[in-house]
Amino acid sequence: MIQLYIPLNFLGVLYREIKQNLVDLEKMFTLLSREREVADAPGAQPLRIGANSSVRFEDVHFAYDAARPILRGLSFEIPAGQTVAVVGPSGSGKSTLARLLYRFYDVSPEGGGHISIGGQDIRSVTQASLRAAIGIVPQDTVLFNDSIGYNIAYGRPGATQDEIEAVARAARIHDFIAGLPQGYQTQVGERGLKLSGGEKQRVAIARTLLKNPPILIFDEATSALDSANERAIQAELESAAQGKTTLLIAHRLSTVVHAQQILVLEAGQVVERGTHAQLLAANGRYARMWALQRSEPSSSSPAPAPAHPM
Ligand code: ATP
């Protein structure tokens, strides 16, 4: 019994870890043969996405555990091609928004509101088409136990080596990979090379650039990137986000300055919204956060990379 329990328990932990980290789970579900919490509705249709397809959250309520509401009536729209940034204290529900848009979880069943893309409720479309339309750079990327090249190419199976290298360059990870004895064939994961938090995030950025989807979710890591890489990658992401509908979850306010709209989230509710200039002029919570971050130069300097398990 114990012998059976340990591997099952391990799979449970692995499943939760990966789910939390917003990795495409299609492959893992097949491997683990786990029942999906979120399934395609009967007769679900592929998502149709056009040049004017905006993303809308309408009065969204959500709780991981019914006793503890996390999102409490959230509404906002990301017009097609624009960026909406979300800032707010740790635990306010920012990453939860990303998990709902990618449909790892559904809004609360009773009166939980709607999330739609181009007017289609995401619960009514196939998960495969939804996930094909969205690229995620999560806070903490989980990599497959495979080559680093495979881990990037996963963004678009069938990509050529030239295409893989081009996005790796854009994500500032090519030189690191090229310097490894086995280059793009280097195995990563439990049995291979361990990457730092920042390196894993750059792999995720490369993967997303290769996928080139119309909708982007960037869940900024608190400390995974050092300042030089952060600035370089921020420029890449800004250019990658050009013309894409982007949800940017940010810890550093410097990354949100150019967003068309900034939402300040507190305890699962939007307490302020506007552009950077409007929010500074309003002299409220955002303005205070901005003043605080500017007075703490250490907050934008590199923190030690967390020792994440692969
Ligand atoms: P941070 O800035 O620290 O990344 P956040 O604003 O992104 O925080 P979320 O990750 O959305 O916050 O979490 C919101 C709340 O939901 C937190 O209190 C967190 O503990 C809780 N939470 C997150 N994931 C789960 C889960 N899988 N099960 C139960 N509670 C969860």
Automatic annotation (TrEMBL):
Q: Where in the cell is it found?
A: Cell membrane
Question: What protein am I looking at?
Answer: ABC transporter ATP-binding protein/permease
Which parts of the chain span the membrane according to its record? Answer: 1-15
Domain (ABC transporter) ranges: 55-292
The taxonomy runs: Bacteria, Pseudomonadati, Pseudomonadota, Betaproteobacteria, Burkholderiales
